[in-house]
Amino acid sequence: NALLQGHSAVSTDVCERLAQCLNVGFLPRIPERGTVGASGDLTPLAHLAGALMGEGRARLGDGPEQAASRILAELGWAPLEPDGKNALGLVNGTSAMTGIGALTAIRAQRALEWTATLGVSYAEVLKGKLEAFDSSLAQVRGHGGQARIHHWLLELARGSQRLEAAVDLPPVLDHQSIGVNRDQPLPQDPYSIRCLPQILGAVDEVVRDHARVVENELNAVTDNPIFFPDEGKVVHGGNFYGQPIAFASDSLAQALIKMAVLSERRIARITDPGLNGDLPAFLQGRETGLHSGFMGAQVTASATVAEMRQMATPASIQSVPTNANNQDVVPMGTIGARRTDHLADLL
């Protein structure tokens, strides 16, 4: 798609071959490591171009991995022989990190939907109070993401038989009165229920911003040099530099980890007999101690959150000079995109 913008000076033959590869499911084997995302994804894309030339390995659809030259022969395709800008255009760009980011964007949106849906179910289990979802709170906060989540949660909660209205508090005692109303219920829920619109509202904005950056990059010219035939000029610059994807990936990583933290806290509360109302310990319903119930699920969640937190360090600041210090600052965008995609797995 980047090459089709018309500023890369790549021939139509190359673009048509790439389209043919997509149509038949020709998939080159590409190593996930080995790019700093600075002069684009040179190493991964070199393996892609090499497969088109009959070098390296590939597979066709769900078929077995084999020599790329063999698959080209089966398809009746002559190996590509790129030269000049055709060769450079195939390897110089942010396509690897952007492709990973595009897949992660869809998964992050799906995770947000699950987190909101399960959040309402969790609130129902604990007989949470519906007022925390009141959209009036969003009106005075001013964040679009929070407003969207309030609307979403209210739709999910529509018709619930377990969510409660606001607690009807007794009149305030005058200042001379003493005593404590020990029978009064807690007027507010734990933050995992009460702050759900605020947490997921912020997550929603991060997910949307990441998707916006990725979509823009999918439709961008990210190689070098760039040709402007209508103006009769060629510009040498740095559009291959993957900083936008690097920053967006790092930001999304924090949002995915936050959803995992929220999930773990939910599991902890509903399995804890001191916090889960009248539910049995670990939701096992039998002899505590002899039967562990969902204790293993809670321990697994704790371990997973710990593992995810270890991956919270931003990739976008881990610049290590390469290329004899020509690439003296690099964005590490592909490393960040891969890490964030793995966080989506763990979430």
Automatic annotation (TrEMBL):
GO terms for molecular function: ammonia-lyase activity. InterPro entries: Aromatic_Lyase, Fumarase/histidase_N, L-Aspartase-like, Phe/His_NH3-lyase_AS. Transmembrane segments: none annotated. This is Aromatic amino acid ammonia-lyase. The lineage of its organism: Bacteria, Pseudomonadati, Pseudomonadota, Gammaproteobacteria, Natronospirales.
